[in-house]
Amino acid sequence: MTNNDILKKLRVALQLKDDDIVKILALVDFKVTTTELGAIFRKEDHPNYKECGDQLLRNFLNGLIIHLRGPMEKPPVTLSEPPKRIILRKGKG
Questions:
Q1: pLDDT band for position 28 (50/70/90)?
Q2: Cα–Cα distance, 6 to 29 (Å, whole number)
Q3: Within 10 Å of residue 71's Cβ, how many Cβ atoms?
């Protein structure tokens, strides 16, 4: 199964249009046009067929996660200095 097949099957299963895929890829700052997507979704024997690379599929999957789940929460702000440790000693007596 090629990357083109995977992208086509995800498109059908999630009922995505070309514009939706462009927007999903934009979530991860990956630019692609609807014309390029049209070439990816063509049959292999078509003269305008374009192979879907690993980078495009990877970015689509990362963008799809953001699209479905929402953006990740920012990690908590850390202090510029680590907190000082308090050493407790057992007292005599």
A1: very high
A2: 21
A3: 9
What would the pLDDT profile of 29-72 be if each residue is shown by its tens digit?
A: 999 999 999 999 999 999 999 999 999 999 999 999 999 988 77
Tokens linked to 45: 């024997």
Angle between the N-to-C axes of helices 18-26 and 54-69, in degrees from 0 to 180, rounded to the nearest 10: 90
Would you kindly state where each structural domain of the chain is located, as residue ranges? 3-69
Q: Write the burial class of residue 92 (CB in 10 Å: 0-12 exposed, 13-18 middle, 19+ buried).
A: exposed
Which pair of tokens denotes residue 75? 């990690």
Q: How many angstroms separate the CA atoms of 24 and 18, rounded? A: 10
Distance CA 28, CA 24 (A): 7
